[in-house]
Amino acid sequence: QVQLVESGGGLVQAGGSLRLSCAASGRTFSNYAMGWFRQAPGKERHSVAAISWSGSSTYYADSVKGRFTISRDNAKNTVYLQMNSLKPEDTAVYYCAADGNYARVVRGTVVSWGQGTQVTVSS
Known about the structure:
Blueprint: E1 3-7, E2 10-13, E3 18-25, E4 33-39, E5 46-51, E6 58-60, E7 68-73, E8 78-83, E9 92-99, H1 102-107, E10 112-113, E11 117-122
Parallel strand pairs: 2-11
Antiparallel strand pairs: 1-3, 3-8, 4-5, 4-9, 5-6, 7-8, 9-10, 9-11
């Protein structure tokens, strides 16, 4: 289990970009798969992107594929979500997640969650 702190959220115009960061604490960070989830107002939380511990495998929800990129820097214990071509429907609280099992991160059944960071995209 690791502790996660998200940052980088904010208010942007449609078509703009943001990069979210998730700083992880814990000696086993490099062994954890990481992911990003989001929850829009009145909707359920769902997976946005995931990345294996090595970075060799990635997953993207269809709604963000081609626009978002997940990456990680294990030396900095940080995972990123680069969000380009943002749309109003991307507005949500974004959560970082971590688990030792990549499949659980994709599914959202994870051990550790961050507190979330708000992303608001204006139209």
